[in-house]
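Hey team,

Filing this mostly as a record. A colleague (T.K.) asked me to run one chain through the structure pipeline before their review meeting, and I want the input and output archived in the tracker in case anyone asks later how it was produced. No errors, nothing strange. Just documentation.

Input sequence:
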Amino acid sequence: MRTVRECDLELIYRLMTDVSEKGEYWLIDIPAEPAFRRGFSERGFWHENFGRMLITDKEQEGRIVGEIIYYRNADYRAGYEVGYQIFKREDRGRGYMSESLALFSAFLFESKPIPRLQLTVVAGNEASRKVAEKCGYRYEGTLRKAAFHAGKYVDLELLGLVRGECLPLQL
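Output structure:
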């Protein structure tokens, strides 16, 4: 994993917005390109309430395979929500996300004064839920009809990880 560099912007935006590569559980959210570029130029995609890192393949000269983010979901909640995606179908199921989520979670707990992290998974997305559970996230409940997806409202499963449950950062 690594932070975003200015030279990455065109490729990342293209990967993020390639709808043909999104899986059946992807919740459509395409940022406007000017806003995306402004987010980088203003803060490098890294500040108190939002951060983005790239997931890379170490054996293929740092080829970008996905992204992982944290963000403040609501001002009254302690901690952050985490989101992630592998950009291309052929890179899914190869362990990139499990390794990245474990590392990212440990990093956030060691660098931020937060008690918890959480993430949501579209109900039925067993692959994403397995990744979260493998990294110590535990099911906390279902948010019924919480997201609009593929023409209908779907449930989201909420998974959480508290500081004491996270394995320490290992580099």
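Quick notes for T.K.: DSSP finds four helices and eight strands in the chain. The mean pLDDT is 93.
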